[in-house]
Structure formats: C-alpha cells, structure tokens
Amino acid sequence: MPTSDLDPLLARIDAKRDEVTALTQDLVRIPTINPPGDAYEACARFLGERLAKRGFKVEYVRATGGPGDSDKYPRTNVVARYEGTSKGECVHFNSHIDVVEAGSGWTLEPFGGEVKDGKVYGRGSCDMKGGLASSVIACEALIESGIALPGALEISGTVDEESGGFSGVGYLAERGYFSKPRVHHVIIPEPLGVDRICLGHRGVYWAEVETKGRIAHGSMPFLGDSAINHMSAFIHLLETQLAPKLAQRHTREPVEPPGARVSTLNINSIHGGQLEQRYAVDARGWPTADLPAPTVAHSCRTVLDRRFIAEESLDEVKREILDMLQELQRTRPGFDFHIKEIMSFVPTATPQDAPVVDATARAIARVLGREPSYISSPGTYDQKHIVRTGKLQDCIAYGPGILDLAHQPDEYVGIQELVDSAKIMALAALKLCGAA
Ligand SMILES: [Zn+2]
User: Which domains, ranges and CATH numbers included, belong to the chain?
Assistant: First the structure.
C-alpha cells in the first residue's frame, strides 16, 4: 500500500484525540487496585462491552482457582478478537488492567481521571490504562477506515501483572491464548515512551532462605543458637562477596536505566524470631500491648530478589547462592538452612529484526519522523509468560507514558503521546497482519 494511502487513517486517529482522552479517563476511574484485585470484573466488562459494539467477539476468562481468585475478588480477564476479511496473521495488544495502590503524596484525586495541561492524571494513567486506550483507538480506527484487514486483531485486558500475572497472562498463556496459530505478534503497551521499543527484560530469581537456630531463654542466649545471628553471617557474605562480583557483570543488552546493566541483588524482606509487634508504653510507663517474650530466635527468613543478565544462566545464579550457604554450613558451627524458590524467569530479548520490532520501528519513523531507540527492562512484565508458556517470540512492549512516573503520586500520561502511539500501533498492526 503506498504510504500516502495511510494519511486518512492517521487523520482519523488525530480526530479521535478527545475520544482517547475520555477512554483513558473512564479506565482510570475504575479503581482496579492490586492487591487485592478490586473492580477487575467491572473493568473487564467495560472494555468488553465497548469492543463488542465495534464487532469484536468478546470472551471473559476468569482464572478460577488461580492465585488471588475468589468470589469477592474474581480474576476476570477479557479477550476480544476481530476477524479480518481474508487469511493473514493475528496481532494482539495485551494490557494489564490492574494498578498499584495510590499511596500518599497526591495533589489530585488518584482515581479522578482529571485532565490538566494536556495530560490525563490518575493512578494507572501511565501504567498502563493510557496504553490500553491507545490500542483500543488504534484498532477501532483501523476497522472504521474500511481498509481491507487480513488476519485478525485482538485486544486483551488482563489482571495481576503487578503481582506476577499468574491469574492474568500466565493463565491465558497456559490455555493457548498467546500461541500460534491463534496469535502471531504481541504488543504490550507498557509505558516505555512513545519512541522506544522494549525488546525484553532481565531474568529474575526469587528465593526464600531460612536459617535455623535453637530456642532458649533470652536472658541466657548461650544456651540457645540464634537463627538471626546465622542469617546475619549469610547477609554479610552477600554484601561483601556476592555484591561486588555482581557489579562487575555487565550486559550488552540496552537495559534502561543504565544502572541496571549489571546483575543485582535486593533483600526484599527479613524476619526473625517472634512475630513483629509495635511496642508502646502509656503515661505510667506500662506497656499498652503484649511485651515480647524473651527467646532466642529459632528461625529467620529472608526473601532474596536476584535480577540477572542475559549473559548469566539461571543455574549459575542458583548455584552461586547455594554455594555460599553450603560454605557457611561447613565453616560456621550450628549453621543450618533451607532454601525455597518462589519464582524464576530467564531473561528475554526479541531480536531487533523480528517482524513486530521492524513494523513498530517503521511506524515510529513514519509518525514521529525519527528512529526509535531500543531498550530492555530491568524488571519483568507479562512478556515472560508469552515467551515461556506461549512459546511466542515475536513480542515487544511499546506504549505511551514515561516509565519513571509509574507507581508515583500524580502519575499522568500526555494526550499527544496517546494519539501518536495509537497511530504507531495502527500502522504496525496493519503491516503485521499483512495489509501494508
Ligand atoms: Zn505496567
């Protein structure tokens, strides 16, 4: 198709500026806070009903029995499919509908969807209801344009991305929703910036390490063996031996921000001894709640959050931590531990010459008049399920919004970015399904 033939499509999307704004506002006003998973059903239905009116076949897929699912908080996903007029490939836009809690520090109503100075404000405006709105407008404009569409367009609104996506994209991927022959190309409109293509992410290994001790009276600690002291020996090794090694391991992948172009380790949490309590005394100096009983900690648990680079293997990452624990077992009297994996995903990187990358890059050049930059994400997102479970490699994250604003107070998305990225998504989809 000659490129001038696409001008009416782009003009049509320009004319939908108010519509993409209003849709973003409407979505922000549905407070899909995760945890616990509020209003998922309402948001999925809102999206499904809109798309059904435009000719999409809409399915609601509840992850019954999946993590977090209950009758009070059903994990309801929506998948909508629009069949083209001839054979071709399917392009799928996947957005998560959940948002994190508002938190403090807002000067505007977090779920008000206010428009100010060319921006839509609110929790989820940037991450990622703005991107969802852009993808909806892109597909609707394509359908209305009357351009013959081969293949199919799909839009999904999925739950729980912020907490791992197991009842969202993970659940759908296990049931073939993100595999060939149903789907060929996936764009995830996460807020990576209107001219950046995110090819993948670093790997993750989460593990809970428990050290064990022997309980005794706190006034005679020499009669027991403190699990907290054992844990502190382990953490000392993590800090003095592992952390310097990780900082030396640089990746060739274009991870943004550049500080994340190395391997990292965070200690997400630690707990030892009795359950945490808040101790306070009244005016007389008497405790207002239970005092702690004097005991030597017989257990201490920590959750490690290890993020690794494409140049490392998951086996090496696990081995390295286990080696340190075993070393302590050999050298430190009484040291005993248990390690349990919570979650792991290997790094993903879609090649730069993959169809979805190429089509999006061309669309960015056409709409914005500049070449895209290619990045990789420090943390994982739903691409992990699409690659690992769906076995679909042709997947990127591309969408409007400034990543740094995600999860912050006064989060916003720029309206011009919503319009521009809708144009880019429409052009990319057209090329990928085989029309342009
Ligand atoms: Zn997100």
Answer: 3-201+347-433 (3.40.630.10), 203-344 (3.30.70.360)
